[in-house]
Task: structure prediction
Amino acid sequence: MSATIARKRISESTIHRLSLYYRTLSLLEKENYETVSSKELAKREKLTPAQVRKDLSFFGSFGTRGLGYNVNELKLKIESILGIDREWRVALIGVGNIGSALVSYKEFARQGFHIIKLFDNDQRKIGSNHKGIVVSDIKDLEKEVKEANISMVILAVPATVSQYIVDDVVKAGVTAILNFAPVNLRVPPFVHLRNENMSMELEYLSFAMVNNHAPKKPK
Amino acid sequence: MSATIARKRISESTIHRLSLYYRTLSLLEKENYETVSSKELAKREKLTPAQVRKDLSFFGSFGTRGLGYNVNELKLKIESILGIDREWRVALIGVGNIGSALVSYKEFARQGFHIIKLFDNDQRKIGSNHKGIVVSDIKDLEKEVKEANISMVILAVPATVSQYIVDDVVKAGVTAILNFAPVNLRVPPFVHLRNENMSMELEYLSFAMVNNHAPKKPK
Result:
């Protein structure tokens, strides 16, 4: 079983659907399912069976007619494709409201993302302890990120300073960044940057309500 | 200027791009831009100019050759399409780590989403004050949601109880729900449900790193 896939651009929504399949397969495993049909997976995700089959065949997984997919095998395969079959060392910058909440967010560690370093520029926060991690001075970012072998950074800093800080993160050699500030940050082409903007999902809801956008019907 | 658009399904990614255009237009307005070209908008969003023109023409906005789009006009139009040209009354259920952080998340109010009610089932939290809002007992959900004329609910409760609580939210007549629990909730077809799963963005990053997925190049 190999995670090596074609280097062509796979759409964002396909990757997100893999994350969803992964969660459903974990649940099915707990419920002692050995196999699952594309129809059942589709029902649980509110997708069409054709979409499920297309996504999975793209990654070289084919169900057996009448039996469907082997739950454990498919779960391990997606785990490997998503890169969550390993442990990731993550630093979080900005121990404010959102940052503090993220330190306690158990889902991260469950998926293999371990926040092991915290940084802030506030003297009142530096040296304080959050869930067993002592907050470091942002000034020591480059040195500590390298020493701790950090490969991902979560940025939970105010929008006004986020570009300066992301520049420092890039200088420190980090190439994967999840940004919570509601701004478009500039990073070099070799850096992976994702934005988490929680109000955008509310905007999707207001759009839907204002435009009478029919919600997806569970099938 | 009307927000009425065809009732056909508009893709999730188009709506998210509208949210991004909106933010960029607000910024351009602050920078005193009167007009903006599709090329400039595309550059800021890391999209192609063709994609920008396609998205905007879909909503009946056409730039003027050589001048581009009027920044203020386009911003107001998107505001109206997204339904953020009004104030939304929002209740938040679950005043734990994530919930408490969301109460302080300023971006919500900036976009017109006002958290005016908090609910929890923990006796130690009920009656306590968060940013001026007193936490209500979840038992009074239906009554208080109706009295306060709430139209959206943010759900920040543990995954294990989220289905029971979403059932109560639906019973209380709310038809727009943003769920932070990492589970697929069942809701009737007339309810708009969106999921915010913060670890899915990290999975996108791990996918990208493991598969040498080329990041989008800023143009």
Q: What stands out?
A: Chain A touches chain B through 78 residues (CB under 8 Å). Strands of chain A lie at 35-36, 69-70, 88-93, 113-120, 129-130, 133-137, 152-155, 176-179, 192-195.
